[in-house]
Amino acid sequence: MQRMKQTALDIYAWFERRLQLEGPVKEAVLHQVPRQTASWWYVFGSAAFTLLFLQIFTGILLALVYVPSAGHAWQSLNVLNHQIPLGWFLRALHGWGSNFMVAIVLIHMAQVFLFGAYKFPRELTWILGVFLLLMTLGMAFTGQVLRFDQDAYWGLGIGASIMSRVPWIGSGLVHLLLGGPIIAGATLSRFFALHVFVIPGTLLLFVFLHVWMVLKLGVNDWPMPGRVVRRATYMEEYHHLAHTDGIPFVPGAFWKDLVFSGAILAAVAVCAMVFGPFGPGGQPDPSIIQTVPKPDFFFLWIYTILSYLPPQMETPFLLIVPLLAIAILLALPLVAAEGEKSWYRRPVAVLVVSTVAVCFGVLTHLGTTTPWSPHMSAWSGDPLPVNRIHDATPLARQGAVVFQAKQCRNCHSVGGSGGERGPALDAVATRLTIDQMRFKVVTGGGNMPAYGKNLSPSEIEALVRFLETLHPANEPPAYDASRRTVEASQAADSAGEASSLRANEGSTP
Amino acid sequence: MSNAAYPANRQEKTSGVNPATTSGDARIVSRRWLLFKAAIALNGAVGLVLAVPIFRYLLAPWRKDASYESWVSLGALDEFPVGETRLANYKNPSADPWDGQTDNVACYVRREGPGEFKVFAINCAHLGCPVRWFPQSQLFMCPCHGGVYYADGSRASGPPERGLFTYNWKIVSDNLQIDAGQMPTLSNTAKLVTISTRPGDSKCSG
Question: Is A157 close to B127, i.e. CB distance below 8 A?
């Protein structure tokens, strides 16, 4: 026993003599950090680090089977899903690991921002962090492309369309992005190179520098109201704090990092096991147009913004706002390197984070329900509720047929089903008179196409007669008072003056 | 502190002591530094020379629009009845063997008269999603952000700034041919038209 221990020590000494890693490692793990930083709030960075290595590991395992060729990628993903034992699980781990990584990186960033950790002397750590966020998002997007299905194909189309809006060099940029004139084999090859070599390589280098600076500059002290950062005095104050009220990084603070990383890995594994891999969806054949392309979760908010922007604002927004946002993030630590760290003294910071979080949540939610998109099969797939046509006249029933057959239903819901692009029509007759409805159908307006050329007069008449029946039982349809007078006088012409007067008196809508 | 090692230079020169004896000597050091700088310059020059072909290689797809265009056939004229809009497929002219299905490009052919056609790109003018033709209501609808176009390709509603992209077409021995080859986007097809958001106003002559 004693001899074995001695042998092990000798072997260790043999390596240590050559590697000489003991000194720097000890220095890194035992350096003093302020006691309060041993907090559950400080675990997100290390969790992102762990997830990065999960992604690298699972990514390499997937690369053993995946074929980065436009002609075969989709089939190789299906082989992974269905033929290789547990191939689906590896794909699921990589996919869920990606979602968790983006989420954790965003949470880490919000935490660092709220804790003022970007201030002196950690400005460069933040700036590298901004690039790490961009690269993480870049990995998520290029990863979605490698899952070479319909969503990937049309997602690339959206990317190319955005690129094409750049003035003067748009066309060249599109070709550079796609590797040629169209989305094809060259496109997948270059996205594979980006996803597997270019971005991960840069990412690893930046992560190394990021962590290096965390070790060299120390973990950010817990923000206290009134403890103001000043360039002249901060370093001294920090070291004083770390040495008078500090603990060694390992194990004092590190055990929480370890627990959280383990928990996150377990959560990824559980999600992978329960929910399985993402796709692949339909095959990447652009001649199959029965598809509703949608980006992955973390890009849904962009998808939503693109549907709500006024058309003339889109190009400037797409080209200027992202650059502006990145510039603001990069400039933040340079502009606000000094001052209060505590969120109690930084109401604007708290407001910014909560506003961004609420916007992200709302836009993402809208992106999952896409109320702006026509429901492409509602006209044939969603029948009208029976009670809407049960007592209808033959003309109104004919109008109901027009309503379904002319795809009105794709944008307008009745009885809770159908598109949400236009308003629900359950009570349309209480809002619009029959003339207003006729006018709206013929000329369109707002987001509605004009149907004047596409419907015959008899179809329009039947349609509005049907729409006229769409009102609650206890609420009469809207009625144009002047029309009532006209109709009354017409009735008078045919039935005589006395009866016409009676009709006028008794008719209040 | 900073003049501990190398920049002791000036002192020794002025002192006039025989220099070539110690390793910290100014002349030896400056010769080494000269060689070091020369080596850096050499690498810089080689790097610059290498950068030219590397950039040329990287920018290979960056070609002018015209070099990506060629005439492809969509089929015989009889396949497209007058007054109707039909989905047609063609194989992209600049195909590679490893492109798989991505070479199958679709477009809409509307035959307005016996010798009169309009060929629309499948891609929505907003963000390139595939629009779908609904013959009953004579509308193209986009599933992504709800862009809608009339039968003649002009913008009806939704976020697109303009009507559908169109291909140039010609008839060669009873075959309909179009000028295809690159993904239609605002940067290539659109520059030929004036963008208008009024319905029925966008003339896109591809």
Answer: yes
